[in-house]
Amino acid sequence: MMRHTFYALACLAALGACSNPLKTGRFLIDPPDQGVRVPDRIGTAELRDVSLPDYASGDEVAWQTADGAVRMDTKNLWADKPQRAFTLTLARTISDISGATVIAEPWPLAEPPRRKLEVRVEKALAMPNGVYRLTGRYFVSDNNAGGANQARSFDISVPLTSDKPGEIARAQSQAIAQLARQIATLSGPGRSIKTSAPKLDTIFSAPLPGFDGM
């Protein structure tokens, strides 16, 4: 009986240690205001949910070690779902630095947006060489005749002072701020494609036949 009681108490103690909130860190994505202001080149735009790699969309803060492995620690988590936090933060930062109205989908206003914005992240990772790397492509579509569509890439590096999760969160926040500035200025390698005038269906473009007797 004494042995069973001791075993039960040990299990309870272990469970208590695992559930201790003080042993779990949660980190925010929150770019600081860098005081940068740029002209508004976007106007109104709906930002689709940012596409993230699988390792960057999980709850755990990830980093890469020298052997090339991407590792995670269940005791160090993001404070919000990474895709949601990345998308909302990017939309807010673009708006703050440029005066544009960029809102994450779904669009909540009665007046539709002039443009659609999509960001596809290919890499979002603390690297073993001491930098946080954010790479991928972004697309701005404008359906209006003569509008400028953008298809551009980004490759952003932010120095890391350590591989601690708080430092990774700081570097990722700075990388998102740099990406917001790049999108707001429509800059980066790529090209601009003009929207051509919409083509009418021949059934609508052909002249209507006259009525009999006219």
Automatic annotation (TrEMBL):
It comes from Paracoccus aminophilus JCM 7686. The keyword Signal applies. Residues 1-19 form the signal peptide. Residues 29-184 form the ABC-type transport auxiliary lipoprotein component domain. Transmembrane segments: none annotated. Pfam families: ABC_trans_aux. It comes from the Bacteria. Keywords: Plasmid, Signal. This is ABC-type transport auxiliary lipoprotein component domain-containing protein. PROSITE patterns: PROKAR_LIPOPROTEIN (PS51257).
